[in-house]
Amino acid sequence: MYKAQTWLSLNFFAFFFTWGVFLPYWTAWLISSKGLTVESASTIIAAGLFIRSFSTFFVFPALSTKFPIGTLVKAFTVLSTLSLYLFIPFDSFRAMMIAMALFSFIYPLMLPLTESIGAIMMQSERIHYGKSRSWGSIGYAIALLIVGAVTAYFGENSIIYVMIFGCLLMLAAAFYYTPASLKTKANDHSVPFRSLFQSKRFVTAMIICIVIQGAHASYYSYGFIYLQDLGVNNTWSGVILNIAVVSEILFFAIADRLLKRTRISSMFFASAVASIIRWTLLFLFPSVTVYAATQILHSMTFALAHFAFIRLLYEEFDSREIPAAQGIYASLGMGLSTSLLTVAGGYLYKEEPGLAFLGMALVLIPAVLLSIYMKKKFEANPL
C-alpha cells in the first residue's frame, strides 16, 4: 500500500505542477509571447476547453476499455510532452489555434486519468485519496511560485520552459512504477453512458459540478491578468495565487477524516454558497486585499465540490464504470462549461473586469437549488 500511495502522490504532484503552469498562466503567455489580444487569447483558450470536453467525454472512456490504465499514463505523458512543442515555432492566431487544438486533445486526458486512478486505487489498494491528492495541490502551488519568480526576472516568455520542465517531470513519475491494479484492462466492453445516467443521484451531482467548476472560468483565465491590472508584480501574483492552493492542500489533508460522515449534498451546498460569496466579493471590492482574502475560499469553491464528487463515484459505481464517469465529469464539469463561461467572461472582462466575476456568481444559483433538491430526494436519512 505504501508504494502505491507514494506512486499516486508523485503522479498527482507532477500532473498538477503542469496544471499550475497551464491553467492560470497560459492566457498571459499567449498575450505576451505571441502578441495576441485578450479576446483572441480567450478564444483560443475556450477552443481548447471545448476540444478537451470532446476528448475527455469520448476518447478517454473508450481508451480506458481498450488499454490498461497504467499503459495510458505512460502514453498520455509522452504525447502531451511532444505536442507541447507545437506552441514554440509560430506566432499567428491560426497557428496557435491549431497548436491548442492538438495539445488540448491529448494533455487534458491526464486530468480524468489521474482522478480515475485515485478512485480505483481507493477500492483496490485502499489508499487515502485526500492524502495523495494534497500532493497534487502542492505541485500546483510550487508551479505558481516558480512561474511567478521566473517571469519576474525573465518575462512571460519563460512560461513555456517551466511547462516543458513539468512535462518531463510527468514522464519521470509515470515510468517510475505501475501498481498491479492498473496493469490490466478494466473490462473488454465500453460502459454505455446511459447506464451511468440511470443514476439520478449522479446526474444531479454532475449538473451541480458543471455549474460550480465552470464558474471558475474567469478566475482561471483572467485571474493573473486581473492581478496585473491591480498593479501586482509577477512574483507577488504567484504568492497571492498560492493562497488558494495552500487552502486546498490543507483541505485535502484532512478531508477524508473531517468529512467522513458528511452528506454529499451538504458539501455541494456549502461549495455553491461559498462560490457565490467569493465571486461577488471580487466584483464589489476590486482590491488586492480582497482578492487575497477570497483565495482562502478556494478550499470550498473547488476542493470541496471536487472531493464530494469523487466520493460519490466511489459510492455509486464499480471500478470499471469510474473512468467513464470521470470522463463525463472532466468533459462537462471541467471542460465544456468552463469553455462557454470563458468566452462569456472574456466579453465581460473587456467591458469591466469585475463583471467577469459577477457573471460567475449569478450562474451558481441553480447549484444551490439543486443541492437542496439532492438532499431531500436522495439523502434524507443520512447525517
Automatic annotation (TrEMBL):
Gene Ontology CC, one term: plasma membrane
Topological type in the membrane: Multi-pass membrane protein
Stretches that traverse the bilayer: 7-28, 40-60, 72-90, 96-114, 135-154, 160-182, 202-222, 234-255, 267-285, 291-314, 326-349, 355-374
Location of the Major facilitator superfamily associated domain: 6-355
Gene Ontology molecular functions: lactose binding; lactose:proton symporter activity
InterPro entries on file: HcaT-like (IPR026032), MFS_assoc_dom (IPR024989), MFS_trans_sf (IPR036259)
Keyword set includes Zinc: no
Entry's localization field: Cell inner membrane
UniProtKB keywords: Cell inner membrane, Cell membrane, Membrane, Transmembrane, Transmembrane helix, Transport
PANTHER family: 3-PHENYLPROPIONIC ACID TRANSPORTER-RELATED, BLL5896 PROTEIN
Name of the protein described by the UniProt record: MFS transporter
Species lineage: Bacteria, Bacillati, Bacillota, Bacilli, Bacillales
